[in-house]
Design the sequence.
């Protein structure tokens, strides 16, 4: 590597480090285990963290003697469009919402 290439590499690394995250969108390819497609790239569940409000959630409700379990949120399904925050360097993704 010559001097010019070394300077260019250092400046690109410094620029990349100054951007802590990037917002991208992806489509859920598989719901269990979760796999999200961002363009042509598959994001597996191992590097994908999902906000709690996107997960399946049931709640038991009691009104006097009446008791019932209701679904508060039905979770992430195939075909859902997600808003993702990509960590600097692409080391991980955070699913923060649905479109």
Sequence:
């Amino acid at each position: 590597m010559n001097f010019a290439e070394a300077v260019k590499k250092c400046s690109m690394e410094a620029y990349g480090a100054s951007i802590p995250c990037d917002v991208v969108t992806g489509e859920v390819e598989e719901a269990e285990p979760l796999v999200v497609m961002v363009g042509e790239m598959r994001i597996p569940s191992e590097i994908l963290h999902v906000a709690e409000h996107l997960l399946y959630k049931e709640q038991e409700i009691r009104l006097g003697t009446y008791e019932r379990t209701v679904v508060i949120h039905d979770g992430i399904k195939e075909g859902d469009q997600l808003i993702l925050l990509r960590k600097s360097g692409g080391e991980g993704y955070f699913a923060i919402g649905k479109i």
Notes: Strands lie at 21-31, 34-38, 41-44, 48-50, 57-63, 66-73, 81-87, 93-98. The chain has a mean pLDDT of 87. The first strand starts at residue 21 and ends at 31.
